[in-house]
Design goal:
By secondary structure, the chain is of the alpha+beta class. The chain has twelve helices and 16 strands. Helix 5 crosses helix 6, helix 8 packs parallel to helix 12 and helix 10 packs antiparallel against helix 11. The N and C termini lie far apart (63 Å).
């Protein structure tokens, strides 16, 4: 598609040429309807906690527009723009607020990068036929993947996930990824529930810590009710405006058994807790959430950690790893791996079958790791006691190897 726009690779390229050529390629993709995604990253502007910007094409009321998804550390903000207005805004952002741009189409990938001195460089890669076919399949809406939830439920409109289109509820285009994440979470939970002690339980009590706008809280409640279970689901959130929004929606639609409380995981104590959820709890808040689940005897614990800050300052680089860990990015990744490995081992030592895995593709969210723990029952629980000393010894050895003085969850369990 772009081949006729790419000059000879050997020809000299001025700084202005790289940026202008990128914009011409983007305009061509928009004109031909082949824009899959535009990702702007490496933010250098003044806005606090802004991480990246994703741009996609949407059709609203029959008009093609560009949907801008501004991703912050704690929230997502979506704004739609007319084509010309959106393209002009992208051009203003390149090299001033975002230093990297990655354009995806079904046949090419185009990358624009600005050096520290502001010099732009352009790279265009043509996808192989197999990759083109995969990209085409990813953007096709002809075949919908299995969804565990229904968009027809009226509460989704209260939460901004759906809107009315020709008299029917329809997914807001900018929320398509969020919808996939929600369904993927329910898919994982459904599998965990089958293998837990809750499989045959007529009622299930769930607490969702840091529930935010309530997407997962409503989803858990709705799915459990659809399975015929008496779901008692509570969203716990610090922000009062989010609690009011979700509580109003739950009351409006008569969702008995669904409630939202303002509270902190460090001090909130539920009367009964079967399933503990904590997605994107910052740093040691994840440890407090896990500890609460353990203390309450939760059958299922589901966490998606972020902001691993406690371990990294303590880490002493073992001599054999110093050549690798001298790089900050590697040290950060190592600290993250060590933190979540210790959490998983501590959960196992407390009698849980534990897995750590990516629960959603990295392109959807950078916070895509999940710690899933299911409480062992019956013979498995009895056999676990023999393995506990070995697990505790492994934890002690890891701490010794990295020179760690303290890990929050271990400290909470020892108190």
């Amino acid at each position: 598609m772009f081949t006729h726009l790419i000059p000879d690779a050997q020809a000299p390229v001025t700084q202005a040429d790289a940026s202008q050529r990128f914009m011409r390629l983007l305009q061509t993709a928009v004109t031909e309807g082949t824009l899959h995604k535009l990702l702007l990253s490496k933010y250098s502007g003044a806005e606090d906690k802004l991480e990246r910007l994703t741009v996609r094409e949407v059709v609203l009321r029959g008009e093609r527009q560009l949907s801008f998804l501004w991703r912050y550390q704690t929230k997502d903000v979506t704004k739609n723009h007319a084509m010309g207005e959106g393209l002009a805004l992208i051009q203003d952002l390149l090299g001033t607020q975002f230093q990297n741009a990655h354009l995806h189409t079904p046949s090419e990938e185009v990358q624009l990068a600005f050096s520290r001195k502001g010099k732009p460089s352009l790279r265009v890669s043509r996808l192989a036929p197999a990759e083109q076919a995969a990209a085409g399949a990813a953007t096709s809406h002809d075949k919908e993947k299995q969804r565990y939830l229904s968009l027809q439920k009226p509460f989704w409109m209260d939460l901004g996930l759906t809107h009315e289109l020709k008299g029917e509820p329809a997914l807001v285009p900018a929320m398509s990824r969020k919808w996939k994440q929600i369904n993927k979470f329910i898919e994982i939970f459904a599998a965990a529930l089958k293998t837990s002690g809750l499989a045959d339980s007529p009622d299930v009590h769930v607490a969702d810590f840091g529930s935010g706008k309530g997407y997962l809280t409503f989803a858990m409640y709705d799915w459990l009710r659809e399975q015929g279970k008496d779901a008692q689901v509570t969203g716990v959130e610090l922000r009062d405006d989010m609690v009011k929004l979700c509580s109003t929606a739950a009351v409006r639609h008569g969702l008995t058994g669904l409630r939202f409380d303002q509270g902190d995981v460090r001090s909130y104590t539920p009367a009964r807790l079967d399933v503990m959820i904590a997605l994107h709890a910052c740093d040691i808040a994840t440890d407090y959430a896990i500890h609460l689940g353990l203390r309450a005897g939760a059958q299922v614990i589901m966490c998606s950690p972020c902001c691993h800050k406690q371990i990294r300052p303590q880490m002493k680089m073992p001599k054999m790893l110093r050549p690798m860990l001298q790089h900050g990015i590697h040290l950060g990744q190592e600290a993250e791996m060590v933190t979540d490995s210790l959490r998983a081992l501590l959960l196992e030592a407390e009698g849980y079958e534990t897995q750590v895995f990516e629960f959603i593709a990295l392109e959807h969210t950078s916070k895509n790791k999940m710690i899933l723990a299911i409480k062992k029952t019956g013979a498995a629980a009895e056999a676990h006691a023999a393995a506990r000393p070995e697990l505790l010894a492994q934890i002690a050895e890891i701490k010794r190897f990295y020179g760690l003085r303290e890990q929050c969850l271990e400290t909470l369990l020892a108190a």
